[in-house]
Fold this sequence. Notes:
The complex is a heterodimer of chains A (294) and B (161).
Chain A: E1 5-7, H1 12-22, E2 26-29, H2 35-40, E3 48-51, E4 61-63, E5 67-71, H3 76-80, H4 83-88, H5 90-97, H6 102-107, H7 110-116, H8 123-129, E6 133-138, E7 141-146, H9 147-150, E8 151-153, E9 156-157, E10 164-171, E11 177-185, E12 192-202, E13 209-217, E14 224-225, H10 227-233, H11 242-249, H12 264-293
Parallel strand pairs in A: 1-3, 2-3
Antiparallel strand pairs in A: 4-5, 5-10, 6-7, 6-10, 8-9, 11-12, 12-13, 13-14
Helix pairs in contact in A: 10-11, 11-12
Chain B: E1 2-9, E2 12-19, H1 24-31, E3 50-53, E4 56-59, E5 72-74, H2 76-79, H3 87-94, H4 104-117, H5 123-129, H6 141-153, H7 155-160
Parallel strand pairs in B: 1-5
Antiparallel strand pairs in B: 1-2, 3-4, 3-5
Helix pairs in contact in B: 3-6
Amino acid sequence: MGHFKFLEPASLDEACGMLAEFSSGAKLLAGGLSLVPMLKSNALAPSHVVDIKGLRDLSYIQEGNDSVAIGALTTFREIGKSVVIDKRFPALLDMERNLYDVQTRNWSTLGGNLCDAGRSGELAPVLTALGASVRLVSSGGQREVHLKDFHLGHRATALRADEILVEITIPYLGSRRSAAYAKESRRSDHRAISAVAVVVQLDERLTTITDAVIVLGGLHDTPVRASKAEQILIGQELRATLLDEASKAAPGVVPVISTRAGSADFRRSVTAMLTKKTLTLAIERCRVRDGRRG
Amino acid sequence: MKQSVTLRINGTDYELYVDSSATLLEVIRDELGLTGTKAGCGTGACGACTVQIDGKAVKSCLVLARQAGEHEVTTIEGLGQVGHLHPVQQAFIDRFAVSCGFCTPGMIVAAAALLTENAHPTEDEVRHAMVGNLCRCTGYVTIVDAVLAAAEESSPQIKEA
């Protein structure tokens, strides 16, 4: 690894000040599971590493009036154990349960993972489907960015060099509206070769799809909406072949990457399978949730 | 560049002066001579470097040592010693769960962390909790048996340990 000075700000303000001072020479450190391998391989050689993992104020899960606010330094395991998340967004638990391994989930943070923005990232597709946004803070102020506008490419985000992602806000799903997530990964390194997050809304009789959001991860530089598949579903009564039709159409939306981990063809067929699986689960969740309240 | 840091390892505070780039694994093994924790892959894949940070299993090869400063770190040496073995260690011996032994410390530390959180895991839960620990020798069967046996035989001790 190269030589850098390790800085431990005692507050968010202090951290922002350090980023402002050292600009692109400074790198933020949260869990480090994205940064440390890059430091070890000398892919990055910052002059300063600003460790924000100790800023406990940035680790929380708060139920608000119309959304849940999650501090950026909340770990995946904390999400997995959260009663609030289980109640409001079980799709996040679908993702957390099989993300890498428990050692990673104990230490890795949501904010760090979003800023890493790897194409096999699993958090981004779920949050995008859920309509989440992130709050970015710097010495100069703060701004909210929707997840769909946050990812700009593989390992590229809208985060500026002097900004820190501090909070993720997820609006509540309305009635008869539920989400689900599933992925397939290589057995050897657990990286997703296809990740599908869906949100489905049903009408009062629970027989017709009134809205659908399908976000695909692991196939392209950023998560993508499978809009053709969504259009096949919206306004349609749930008939036997509907989900099959939508699932087949889902992966056709972008050029799909082809790597040793999974060829484009394999990723497409896995995506179709995962789309059907998640749509089925989301629809079931709509029915169960509504049944519980009714 | 070298900077000072205080680390609490197995209940003892150590004042250290280490490079800012030193990982927790390097400091545990090279500075403190606690070589029970193993360096397997260096990329966070194999789990042989597993320690507990505040009782939770974490892979120490990817944690910069300085980040552990405000936490309690437990290594395999802190879990049990000859004559006073942790129930999971005893179960690994009893169930022949050790072959070459290289993955063993990481396995035991991960299993011990699981059992403090979930004293009676199912086989699926054990396998799920230990998916981050790789073994090239045993095929995992005896390891899973040992963890289940430790859970069955000694839950009160595990809560204390």
